[in-house]
Each structure stands twice: as structure tokens, then as C-alpha cells.
Amino acid sequence: MKVNTVKNKSFTFSIRIVKLYQFLSEHKRELILSKQILRSGTAVGALIREAEHAESKADFKHKMGIAQKEISETIYWLELLKETDYLSQEQFESINADAVELIKLITTIIKTTKTNIRNQSLTINH
After folding, report:
1. What are 92-112's pLDDT values in tens digits?
2. How much is the average pLDDT of 116-123?
3. What does the alpha-carbon distance between residue 67 and residue 21 come to, in Å, rounded to a whole number?
4. N or C: more exposed end of the chain, with fewer CB within 10 A?
5. Closest CA to 65 of 48, 42, 49, 77
6. What are the tens digits of pLDDT across the range 21-77?
7. What is the DSSP letter of 56?
8. Which stretch of 7-16, 18-27, 100-109, 117-126 has the lowest confidence by average pLDDT?
């Protein structure tokens, strides 16, 4: 069976986000930003799972595009948490590195899918 790297990494990232939420709400008593990052950070993996069962390549690309927006939003919340001293530089760098890796993977998948859709369209039209 083929290993789905983005699926596995997004699930692991979601686990880290849940633990970050627990840390922020229990130890830092931060309830608003922590819920924002919980929502966007876990949505990434859920959207990637949805994309696995897309109805078409266009639907797959659309779902991955939403996942890309969610990971971008998550990076925003991470940066905000760092700048407001809820996260140390070390904590930020660790989880942000995973987020940046995910956004790169998702972006590559979207670009490849667009190329495949375009190539398939050219093949059908000729």
C-alpha cells in the first residue's frame, strides 16, 4: 500500500495542534486564540482526508486549496501566539517548521493536480 505522506503529516500535525490547544488553555489560560488555532490546525488534516475521496480531480484540487488556506491561517495564529508571548521562540520554531512543511507539500500537490488536469484536458481536446 502506498504511503500517503501529506495525510500522515497532517494527522501528526493535528495531534500537535490539539496538544498546543491544551497547553494554551490549561497553562496559559488563553481561550480565544487557542480555539482559533485548534479549528484551523485540525481542519487541514480533515480536508486532506476529504480530498482522498473527492468526486473528481477538480473537487480534489478544491479541497486541497481549502486545506492550503487553513494551514496558512494556522501559520498566522502561530506567529501571533509567538509575538504575544504565548509561545516561546523554540516552541514556535518547532511547530511552525511542521506547518511550513505541510504548506509546501499541499502547494506542490495542487500544482501537480492543476498540471494533470490541464494535460488531461489537452489530451481529450486533441
Report:
1. 999 999 999 999 999 999 999
2. 82
3. 19
4. N
5. 48
6. 999 999 999 999 999 999 999 999 999 999 999 999 999 999 999 999 999 999 999
7. S
8. 117-126
Residue found under cell 518547532: 94
Residue type, 17: I
Q: Residues for the chain: how many in total?
A: 126
Q: How far is CA 29 from CA 18, 41, 79, in A?
A: 15, 19, 18
Give which of 49, 89, 98, 91 is closest to 71, Cα–Cα. 98
Per the listing, cell 486545506 goes with 67
Residue 8 corresponds to which cell in the numbers above? 500522515
Q: In 3D, which of 43, 24, 44 has the Cα closest to residue 33?
A: 24
Assess whether pLDDT exceeds 90 at residue 126: no
Ordered structural domains, the chain, with CATH: 5-125 (1.20.1440.60)
Backbone angles phi and psi of 27, in degrees to 5:
-100, -30
Contact between residue 108 and residue 8 where contact means Cβ atoms under 8 Å apart = no
